[in-house]
Amino acid sequence: MTLSELKIYKSQGKKITCLTAYDASFSQLFDECGVDTILVGDSLGNVIQGGENTLAVSMDDMIYHTKAAAQGVKTALLIADMPYQSYTNSQQALDNAKLLIAAGGEMVKFEGGSEHKDIFQILQANNIPVCGHLGLQPQSVIEMGGYKVQGKDEKGAQKIIDDALALESWGVEVLVLECVPAELAKKISQALSIPTIGIGAGVDCDGQVLVSYDMLGITQGGALKFVKNFLTESGDIKTAVNNFISAVKQQEFPSDQHSY
Ligand code: KIV
């Protein structure tokens, strides 16, 4: 899977699948099932480390888990998250992004909008593929007043639209939209030529991502509105992953029940 193929998927209306993985066993299983993109998310702060949020995740943690996950991937595109405080200025962001690429990531993801203009530009100038992340930004959970849906009012929605367009103009090649109203995510997905991958952002994003531990019912994330436990109806992990893939491809997930 390449970035150009993801763009072709978007132009052909083919939905993109993404699951998080933090080790070689899970990444290999997801890869063999045919998941298009695998994210080494800083959600490992919650699901691996047991933290209340992602703020304690370090670059060393991300490098370790990116290396491990990369061992299992043959076909999927591997995206590595930049953790909290690892991109406070453009030189630091560039140095850390290079470390994640050296660890086996093919693209780095970080949260935030136009406040990071310099960072988007320096990564683009250095040919490091970037995935943006707008809407709910778990690394800013304290500033955002908790895990809340973003872009519900006109001003908030316009800020996310403006940021999305700016990110595309600064070379961002994929955009994660987390916890935004389905109508807003649809509008943004239609306005961009790069693919959007939604989580709690409705069925009209170009793809869907879930934290794998949530979709397998291992964590309390399963109680979140936008999460579906695919293991309950499947009985085994491979079938659950295959059911996630077909539900996304056939636009059966997320249903209205899983959207805002
Ligand atoms: O860290 C993560 O797993 C993420 C997804 C929820 C998109 O950023």
In the residues, how many domains can be counted? Answer: 1
Q: What is the name of the CATH class? A: Alpha Beta
Largest sheet: 8 strands, parallel, barrel
Total strand count, please? 8
Rg on CA atoms, Å? 17 Å
- In CATH, the homologous superfamily goes by the name Phosphoenolpyruvate-binding domains
Mean pLDDT over the full residue set: 97
Supply the CATH architecture. Answer: Alpha-Beta Barrel
Q: Percent of residues in beta strands?
A: 5-15%
Low-confidence stretches: none
In the CATH scheme, what's the topology name? TIM Barrel
- What distance separates the N and C termini? 30 Å
Q: What is the topology, as strand order, of the major beta sheet? A: 1-2-3-4-5-6-7-8
Give the CA-based shape: globular
Short description:
The protein has 260 residues and is an alpha/beta fold.
Describe the protein's architecture and organization.
The protein is α/β, with parallel strands linked by helices. It has a single domain (about 5-260), classed as Phosphoenolpyruvate-binding domains (TIM Barrel, Alpha-Beta Barrel), CATH 3.20.20. The protein is built from 10 helices and 8 strands. The chain has helices at about 5-10, 25-35, 45, 60-70, 90-100, 115-125, 155-170, 180-190, 210-215, 235-250; strands at about 15-20, 35-40, 75-80, 105-110, 130-135, 175-180, 195-200, 205-210. An 8-stranded parallel barrel has the order 1-2-3-4-5-6-7-8, surrounded by 8 helices. Helix 2 packs across helix 4 (about 60-70). It is globular, with a radius of gyration of 17 Å. The mean pLDDT is about 95. 3-methyl-2-oxobutanoic acid binds near residues 20 and 209.
